[in-house]
Amino acid sequence: MLRLASASLAGTAIEFYDFFVYGTAAALVLGPLFFPSFSPLAGTLAAFGTFGVGFLARPLGSAVFGHIGDRHGRRPVLLGSLLLTGLATVAVGCVPTYASIGTAAPVLLLLLRFLQGLGLGGEWGGAVLLTAEHAPEARRGLWSSFPQIGPAVGFLLANGMILVLSASLSEAQFTAWGWRMPFWAAGLLALAGLWLRRSVEETPQFRALAETGRRAEAPLGEVVRGHWRLLLLTGGALAVGYAVFYAVTTWSLAYATEHLGVSRTVMLACVMAAVALKGLVTPLAAVAGDRFGRRPLCLVGCTVCALWMFPLVALLRTADPLLMTLGLLGALLGMVTMFAVVGAYLPELYSPRIRCTGAAVGYNLGGVLGGALTPIVATALADGSGPPWGVAVYLSGIALVSLGCFALLPETNPVLVRKRASAGTETGAAEAAAPA
Predict the structure, then answer these.
(1) DSSP per residue over 130-167, as a string?
(2) What are the backbone dihedrals phi and psi of residue 71, each rounded to the nearest 5 degrees, phi first?
(3) How many domains does the chain have?
(4) Radius of gyration of the chain from its Cα atoms, rounded to whole angstroms
(5) Which member of 26, 51, 97, 427 lies 3.0 to 4.6 Å from 33 by CB, making a disulfide possible if both were Cys?
């Protein structure tokens, strides 16, 4: 399990490195380089617009790779998605700026960002099922949290590299070529990830499906026809996690550097410190999910996010590094309380024959609802001299919607469901042991 979980973590870290390095570059340099005729605000909005395209591509990627995962196995998904995302990211670092090729530059940027999202949309389902379908029931939450640590590791890798370059290069050097280096490094990371995953075994549940001939012929159609309500609920439930994460890691970076005069290096360090602590807390929250259930952790996380958004804005507005870090950390702790357990929660909601498609599409639908528009909306709401309370209202509203969606989802922890069934505390609890 440790070897499988480590391979899963490494792959998601590399793929999210590719995804996050674009988000940081969009916040710092892509606006002036690829949209120079726009005002500073409009340029940032346009850069975040190309950032959002990656989220729109993710459900499509999850549908394509989910079909492969449910028909041909989880292992091909792990290799194909990693290769696609790595190649697209390297290519972003090679795109000439608007000054060199005109409007073709942002068009190429848009296309490559779409391919990035396509690959990442397939990655999560394969990586999570690799651990969830191998793990023992009593520790499924813990082992399935390893892929959920990957985004924190990928973010630290991406921003650590940009932080080093930002601190060691002049502004002119960083703008001219320094920002490209993290994209080029993605090629080496992708090769390392492919090497780590080369010997990963197929999951026992898929092997059983293949041997009995019970694989779904059209997984996406089966999910949409028979589980559309579940799909919408999971997408709405996960929206707040994406909204909070990208508000912290992308919008706050742009806001603090442009509106508060905080240096790029200081703000990157604040965000990275908060994300590092979030990564450390992830397995602890997952263990709590194994003990107390997936749903209670998700409800607590949504509540924390709903209550913390106004303190987040107030602390960010101080421009004090320690206070800003505290504000960012509080938001991420609320987010990770729920996202630490979704690696086990979402697969448990679906039967094995459609699990790769259902879990991945639901997860990435949450990305569209919560992550695609958040940097754009938050940037527009924060345009002014006063505190951006509109951003806090927007994020708290998403948190309340997600809270309602989680309230409508069932508990899936198989150990707890069986205990409740045997104790006779829930009507129909025996049926709840099956996928929702």
Answers:
(1) HHHTTS-GGGHHHHHTHHHHHHHHHHHHHHHHHHHHHH
(2) -95, -40
(3) 1
(4) 21
(5) 97
